[in-house]
Amino acid sequence: MVSSAGDQEREFRDFVAARSTALLRTAYLLAGDWGAAEDLLQVALTKTYLAWRRLDGIEAVEPYARRVLVNTATSWWRRRWHGERPTEVLPERPIPDGLDARLERDALWAHVKELPARQRAVLVLRFYEDLSEVDTAALLGVSVGTVKSQCSRALAALRKRLGEQGIEPALVADGSAERVKGAVR
Amino acid sequence: MTTLEDELRAAFATRVAEVPAVHDVAGAAIERGRAVRRRQRRTAGAAFAVVIALVVGGTTLAKVGRPDGRPDQRGSNVAAGPTSPAPVEVPKLDLVVGNELRPAGRAPIALPGKGDVYDAVRVPAGWLVVRGDKGTRTLWEVRADGAATPLIDSLPATYVFSAGGRVLTYQKGSSLTVAGIVAGTVPTKTTIQLPGKDGSQGRTGAELVGRAGQYVVIGNRQGIDYDGFDVWDPANGSYVPTWNHEVVGVYAATPDGRSLIGAVKGARDGITCAAVLDPAAGLRARSKVCDQPYFAAARHGLSPDGRRILGQSAGAVAIAETATGKQVAKIAATEGVWPAEPVWVDDQTFAVATEGGIRYVDAADPARTREVPGPSTSEHWLAVALVAG
Questions:
Q1: Which of residues 71-130 of A touch B (CB under 8 A)?
Q2: Rounded distance between C-alpha atoms, residue A172 and residue A180, angstroms
Q3: Is there a single domain that holds both residue B163 and residue B223?
Q4: Among positive and negative, which fits the CA dihedral B267, B272, B274, B277?
Q5: Containing domain of residue B25, as a range?
Q6: What does the pLDDT look like over B28-47, one tens digit per residue?
Q7: In CATH, what number is assigned to the domain containing residue B264?
Q8: Which end of chain A, N or C, is more open, meaning fewer C-beta atoms within 10 Å of its C-beta?
Q9: B246 plus B262 within the same structural domain
Q10: B220, B284: one domain
Q11: Residue of A39, A41, A75 lying closest to B339 (CB–CB)
């Protein structure tokens, strides 16, 4: 990208206009609330702007911004400073019969938010961004084995916590969001 | 076939189906980026100026040095110049890097336990280290010879050290406990019940906020914010809340220990006043300094001598004096964000992690700083804090 400062700003604005909503969605899933997500996005975009001249082509920009986003979100220091208040005991939620899928997804989301940030990031990259294990590892700067183990631990924790609430993702053939209720692993 | 993985995909998609509008993020990023570049240029310029001053000054010193050959101290001061203050001395700072404690100038000590190290403070007996994961954190006492004793197996996330690390206050559910830490044990405990309850959206009601001198600071949490504050003196035993709804924060005790400093609501929304508060009169404001930006005290923000407190204010690390609560200086982050809370290294100097290293700042003259690379780019690390006595 060889261009003047004005061109670079225009390119940057075009990039933000095209991709900021997608990045904000990922930021939200990483951060857990929209305020923190905007903060994350700002940091990622500022660093992207600063790195614009050395990023080799527009196709390198989004991966860079996404990497900054994820690495900032998983920075333990940052979570502390911004006052993350982890819940010691997961909240008890009575699950009435006939609870709709939305409420159960809310429960799943609540448990996802309680996962350690790096496990949460792996889940978001694998199951929201649909990145492969290899691409997830490259983005996080860890080994594929680490991605596998983090993902496995995260899924196991979610199954356990959902099971404790009497919710279990059903192995049903029709692909709907039905659950087998009351089955505790 | 629906699996947990499918459910995650559906849950993620549901959560981000609607995205709130954000205001000109590109413009904001460009502004912040420009500010960073300006600071970088200033820093580079200052570094160049120092090099020039040293070269020129060195020549000058050789010419005007004392007859005995020693450099002329006035010459040195002139070389340093008021526009390029002498960088602060790098004091001794203990660090935790990955699985080990690295005391300044001493051999590393392997830390006990597993998981992230969330907190580490220096105490007379050695160090107190909080390690584990979100659900199970253990408080360890680590001594200089490497011996480690688990003090509390399930330390909640809401806790605070005070009195030089000799007192631990923590909240578990609605129970608030104040315990002494003596020679690897936690022998004395006072526990009270706080009004309120834990729900799926977090706690509603009384919540431990921190310590201010002899008092435990309690906030009335309602949603994401506090609606009023109160203090409790553990020496008085039982606790009945008497919220002061004008108070928006209580940070520390004044140096004489008789009053507290904090913030109260100002005349307009969004404006707060730093205030000296009377703990014996329901946190009534004795004096105020208004038009102060909101200040969030850092966990270990109180200086060892009790004269200053560090916090976050409008994206900067702010220094407030504990005599009045007034913010007296701010230090902006180079990258526009501070990745960590600051910790005191001695009465005068604090350290704060930057994106790339550690910045030391002279609290009395915040222009005097020095940045050094961090101890690791691959492992989690944190600076060990001092707890005000």
A1: 72, 75-78, 80-81, 83, 85-89, 91, 93, 101-102, 105, 108-110, 112, 114, 116, 123-124, 127-128
A2: 9
A3: yes
A4: positive
A5: 17-80
A6: 888 877 876 765 565 444 43
A7: 2.40.128
A8: C
A9: yes
A10: yes
A11: A75
For A105, residues 6+ apart whose C-beta sits below 8 A from its C-beta are A177, B7, B10, B11, B14
Task: Grade residue B224 by pLDDT with cuts at 50, 70 and 90.
Answer: low
Residue bearing the bigger pLDDT, A160 or B150: B150
**What is the CATH code of the structural domain delimited by A89-185?**
1.10.10.10
- Closest by Cα among B230, B200, B103, B123 to B166: B123
Q: Are residues B104 and B24 in the same domain?
A: no
Could you tell me the residue ranges of all domains in chain A? 5-81, 89-185
Q: Are residues B287 and B233 in the same domain?
A: yes
Total Cβ atoms within 10 A of residue B167: 19
Residues 6+ apart with CB under 8 A from B285: B246, B264, B273, B275, B276, B277, B278
Q: Which of B80, B99, B125 is the C-terminal boundary of a domain?
A: B80
Which of the listed CATH numbers 2.40.160, 1.10.150, 1.20.81, 1.10.1740 matches domain A5-81?
1.10.1740
d(CA B374, CA B353): 8
Pick the closest to residue B219 from B237, B206, B232, B200 (CA basis). B206
In the structure encoding, which two tokens stand for residue A148, read together?
């596998």
Residue B182 located in a structural domain: yes
ipTM exceeding the 0.85 mark:
no
Name chain B contacts of A75, Cβ cutoff 8 Å. Answer: 339
The reply to whether A17 touches chain B by the CB within 8 Å rule is yes
Per-residue pLDDT for B121 more than 80?
yes
Measured between beta carbons, the chain A residues lying within 8 angstroms of B2 are 169-172, 175-178
Q: Which two tokens stand for residue A75?
A: 């920075």
Collect all residues of chain B within an 8 Å Cβ-Cβ radius of residue A175: 1-2, 6
Say if residues A55 and A1 touch (Cβ distance below 8 Å): yes
Q: Is residue B60 part of a domain?
A: yes
CA of A170 vs chain B CAs: smallest distance (Å): 6
Give the chain A residue nearest B341 (alpha carbons): A81
Between CA B317 and CA B228 the distance in angstroms is 25
pLDDT of residue B320: 95
CA distance B143 to chain A (A): 25
